[in-house]
Amino acid sequence: MEGFDCATDDPRCYCLLSDVLDLLGRKYVMDVVCVVAVHGTVRFGTLEDHIPEASTSTLSARLDALEAAGLLTREQYDEIPPRVEYELTDDGAELAERLEPVLEWAQKRATAES
Amino acid sequence: MEGFDCATDDPRCYCLLSDVLDLLGRKYVMDVVCVVAVHGTVRFGTLEDHIPEASTSTLSARLDALEAAGLLTREQYDEIPPRVEYELTDDGAELAERLEPVLEWAQKRATAES
DNA sequence: TTATTAAGCTGTGAAGTCCAAAGTAACGGA
DNA sequence: TCCGTTACTTTGGACTTCACAGCTTAATAA
Fold first, then answer.
1. Which residue of B18, B34, B64, B98 pairs with A110 in a disulfide if CB–CB is 3.0 to 4.6 A?
2. Which fold, B19-113?
3. What positions of strand D are covered by protein, i.e. any atom < 7 Å from a CB?
4. How many angstroms is C1' of D4 away from CA of B80?
5. What one-character-per-residue DSSP string does B32-93 give?
């Protein structure tokens, strides 16, 4: 993203948005971060239970992307049946923390309209 | 989204996510909210300048969606050339406020990695 | 002995989303 | 008469996401 020279001096004008914001603006990314944050460590199946609208392939892709972005870690245990555990990194946890007011707001809205 | 009965009692477990979160997890939605928040009122062209990666059709679709969700208003002036101004509603402004720590974090990350 | 089960994926073709580029409308100025 | 202005729509093609099937491997069940 190149630097557009914004007219305002407002520091809230984040014209240079990072790749991470791109990632965040993808389906289910916030959901995944939230679920992992709440559970501490999560297995794939648990994520599927919490976010049933997401296909396994999409979920898998999101986990890969989040790992690549350094927001979560993947620990694989060589057992049968396989076991894999996901956990937020410190960076991911910080994001989750900052995401909380947004989710809170979304929930407030969801309950208000029903 | 149906109610999966989450194992944790953690109030941060927002298993019932609203349509608005679906909207937020779409490309450029956070960007648009942020730009409008900073400028107060914005015209279409300004948004294009700030978010050049988004096509006009996508931008237009996002504005429609945000208006439909009650997060921004559209004021059209019958002039030639046409003038249309977008502004956040109170609800939209509250979202923008809660989004700020997230954007701040994203920016911190963007500058750190370069 | 063969079938089933488990979890965490990957692969498939179809459906949906997003893109760049061109087109639309209407009027004033050259 | 044609150009510039603004805020879009339209188009056909590329990229994403979908639901669903299949894969793996070893312990158990029939």
1. B18
2. Arc Repressor Mutant, subunit A (1.10.10)
3. 4-11, 16-21, 24-27
4. 12
5. HHHHHHHHSEEEHHHHHHH-TTS-HHHHHHHHHHHHHTTSEEEEEE--SS-EEEEEE-HHHH
